[in-house]
Design brief:
Blueprint: E1 2-3, E2 6-8, E3 11-13, E4 19-24, E5 29-35, H1 39-58, H2 61-77, H3 79-90, H4 94-112, E6 121-123, E7 130-138, E8 141-145, H5 151-164, E9 168-172, H6 179-190, E10 198-200, H7 205-214, E11 220-224, H8 227-238, E12 243-247, E13 252-256, H9 262-274, E14 284-290, H10 294-306, H11 326-341, E15 345-348, E16 363-366, H12 373-376, E17 383-389, H13 392-400, E18 404-405, E19 407-411, H14 415-424, E20 429-432, E21 444-445, E22 447-448, E23 451-452, E24 454-455, H15 457-462, E25 465-473
Parallel strand pairs: 1-5, 8-9, 8-11, 9-10, 11-12, 13-14, 13-19, 14-17, 16-17, 19-20
Antiparallel strand pairs: 2-3, 4-5, 6-7, 7-25, 12-23, 15-16, 18-22, 21-24
Helix pairs in contact: 1-7, 2-4, 3-4, 3-6, 4-5, 7-8, 9-10
């Protein structure tokens, strides 16, 4: 069992207070302990970031990028250890854990390439003898609050654009899956990144998270998490008008039209629904199937989900591992129970076979209504509720009739239908004839309660920049 320490100003600081226990969700075994940081420790991390920020911003962007590339190199050299760490604390399949580690390294390299590419503007003035310059500058101290479902990649998603653009950062990992973040901090230390540029503080949201969002020395807070957490962060940040970037929940609709390739739709929606054991905010969480292909889809999809294997991914090649904790299992079971009491039918799954860990089977639910809770609220388990539709108007209206607006998908062979869906579906992302999974060069953002701001690509980088407009009057007569 490992005991980790917070990483502040380039050092792992011995914590003398309370520790938080971390468990393997596949075995319920206590595998590590992390510090439950105090308010003072959190403030120390913020102050270290503030002190380091001025000199960090003064470095040429290409020099800042060299540190990011060095960390990416260290990630690749330690990929096996990082993969095992991630699997043990989060329950991912080995294939998905390897993808997350490798994608993180690639993401660091990708963001480092922006060092020579982000730029300001020269704006035409209404006055003679004047130039207007718009500079893109660092915000200052940024903070990142991480979720537990893709905990390693989310470090890079927040850290890399922040550092490339001259900001410093303080990261708070989830208490459910923090081990990978502390191992990441060890690699940061090996990279010789200047002290204070990157800091890592674990602990309770009510203490650490609140301070990272409300401290007057913080210029921006980025959270990936639940809507409820997002509301708390906005409330905390409001006092000092701190910039907020939020990626929150999702309830992604998948629309299968009458002309869809049913086999493709079945495979893509299944892959999306069981990815990361059903715990992904942007993967399909509800399906709308055209009446003419409804029976075929339900039959083929149920067969596909019935073949999904579930178990301890550290001990076998399973399609899914466990949910992250007992609360996740209880929530999924409760939602299923309320659905069946309202007349829904469980076609496949729904019953837990293995209680050694927090395992939940791939589950298909029919006989639900669009207005039912299971079609409206985020499940975060490998459950897919299905509703039929008769017209495209009806499907689009139901897809948009939800408090979330992160991702969506549609399956059709008709270009006109696909283009209409792109125009009328009000979501941050729409996937056509493929599974829900974003690219690092895109822009991951949502409508409605799915968040504010976004990440990835050019536009994600610009989240970490402030604009500074300078008006320069000059005298042309001076020789």
């Amino acid at each position: 069992m490992k005991t980790y320490q917070n990483f502040i100003n380039g050092e792992f600081i011995e914590h003398k207070g309370e520790f938080i226990k971390v468990y393997n969700p596949a075995t319920k075994e206590h595998i590590s302990s992390i510090p439950s940081a105090s308010l003072q420790e959190t403030q120390d991390a913020i102050m270290a970031a503030k002190i380091a920020q001025k000199s960090w911003e003064m470095k040429p962007a290409i020099e800042r990028a060299s540190y990011i590339r060095k960390i990416a190199e260290l990630i690749r050299k330690n990929a096996k250890m990082l993969t095992d760490t991630l699997m043990q604390e989060q329950g991912k399949t080995r294939a998905l854990a390897e993808i997350e580690i490798n994608f993180t390294a690639d993401y660091m390299d990708y963001m480092s390439e922006w060092a020579r590419r982000y730029e300001g503007e020269i704006i035409q003035s209404d006055r003679a003898n004047e130039q207007i310059f718009l500079f893109k500058q660092a915000i200052g101290v940024t903070t990142g609050i991480l979720p537990w479902n893709f905990p390693f990649f989310l470090i890079a998603r927040k850290m890399a654009p922040a550092l490339i653009t001259g900001n410093t950062i303080v990261i708070k990992p989830s208490s459910e899956t923090p081990n990978n973040a502390y191992e990441f901090a060890k690699l940061v230390q090996q990279s010789n990144l200047p002290n204070g540029v990157f800091n890592l503080v674990g602990g309770k949201g009510s203490v650490v998270g609140h301070e990272l969002a409300s401290n007057p020395n913080v210029g921006m807070v980025s959270l990936t998490g639940s809507v409820e957490s997002g509301v708390k962060i906005m409330e905390a940040a409001a006092k000092n008008i701190i910039k907020v970037s939020l990626e929150l929940g999702g309830k992604a609709p998948a629309i299968v039209c009458k002309d869809a390739d049913i086999n493709l739709a079945v495979e893509a929606i299944k892959a999306s629904r069981i990815c990361n054991n059903g715990q992904v905010c942007n993967c399909a969480e509800r399906a709308y199937i055209h009446t003419s292909v409804y029976d075929e889809f339900v039959d083929k999809f149920s067969q596909a989900m019935s073949k999904v294997s579930v178990g301890n991914t550290m001990q076998g090649d399973f399609d899914m591992g466990p949910l992250v904790n007992q609360a996740g299992v209880d929530n999924a079971l409760a939602m299923l129970n309320r659905a069946t009491q309202s007349g829904a039918k469980i076609e496949v799954g729904g019953k837990i076979q293995n209680t050694d860990g927090y395992f939940f089977p791939a589950t298909v639910v029919t006989g639900v209504k669009h207005s039912d809770e299971i079609m409206q609220k985020e499940i975060f388990a490998p459950i897919l509720p299905i509703v039929k539709f008769d017209t495209l108007d009806e499907a689009i209206d139901m897809a948009n009739d939800c408090e979330y607006g992160l991702t969506s998908s549609i399956y059709t062979q008709n270009l006109d239908v696909a283009m209409r869906a792109c125009k009328e579906i009000k979501f941050g992302e729409t996937y056509i004839n493929r599974e829900n999974f974003e690219a690092m060069q895109g822009f991951h953002a949502g409508f409605r309660k799915s968040g504010i701001g976004g990440a990835d690509g050019k536009h994600g980088l610009e989240e970490y920049l402030a604009t500074h407009v300078v008006y320069i009057q000059h005298n042309l007569k001076i020789q």
